[in-house]
Design brief:
elongated, 4-stranded antiparallel beta sheet, 6-stranded antiparallel beta sheet
Amino acid sequence: RKAARAILRLAQQFPGDPGAMAPLFLNYLLIAPGESFFMAANEPHAYVAGEIIECMAQSDNVVRAGLTGKFKDVDNLVNMLSYTLGGPYIDAGAPSPTEAILRYTPPVPEFEVMIITVQPGERLTLPDLEVPAIFTTIEGAGFATTSNQEQSSNGEDTSQYSKLNQGRSFYLPPSAPPLRLMVGLSQRGPMKIALAHKNLHLDKPTSPLSGMHHESEVMSQSPYNISTRSPTHSGDEYINTVVSSDDLTQLNAKLQKQAF
């Protein structure tokens, strides 16, 4: 029944596109907030609805299979598909070391993703990173700094913080000072950020090697791909073939526009 509803929706969105029938021969998944899946190369997939965070290895080639007005290279598609069968493996992340930091680690060296939650009134200092990283605020608001903590003569924190709002992203160079996060006590709800960098826990994967855009496509020369649900909505739909202020006034007065 779910597959039938998906076919009707896709047929309305893409009239005459055979890709609308994909739910009949691919796995049709509903991913809950905080869940993810790892997808290997040469696996067809389509992102149907909702919001996700998608992290993938470098790629210069995408072969499209359907649900798109762009070129579909059928010959290459047929030759490159893995034709691997099996159900999906859903990864809910691993505490690293607490529930405030959930680690999503695929069994490949290119990348891993951390979902970090800071509650109102809390401060959180992340571990040192010797590799470059990118982080994006996906929910709520707060403050961040990478400067070493400074204190005045009376013990107050005099570090310069930058404001983090939903959708704002930053690049962290390798060996930068530890990232410190803060959320004011009066803030409604937690701040959540997604942090991506080279896989530093390859010996402790949270997803097995077996293995979305709205387009149904296949990644070629982009060996790996991981998608995780942004924990702000009730669920997302996928088709895939694989295991798919405590003192805000004072702080604002010190706030400087800076990139770290």
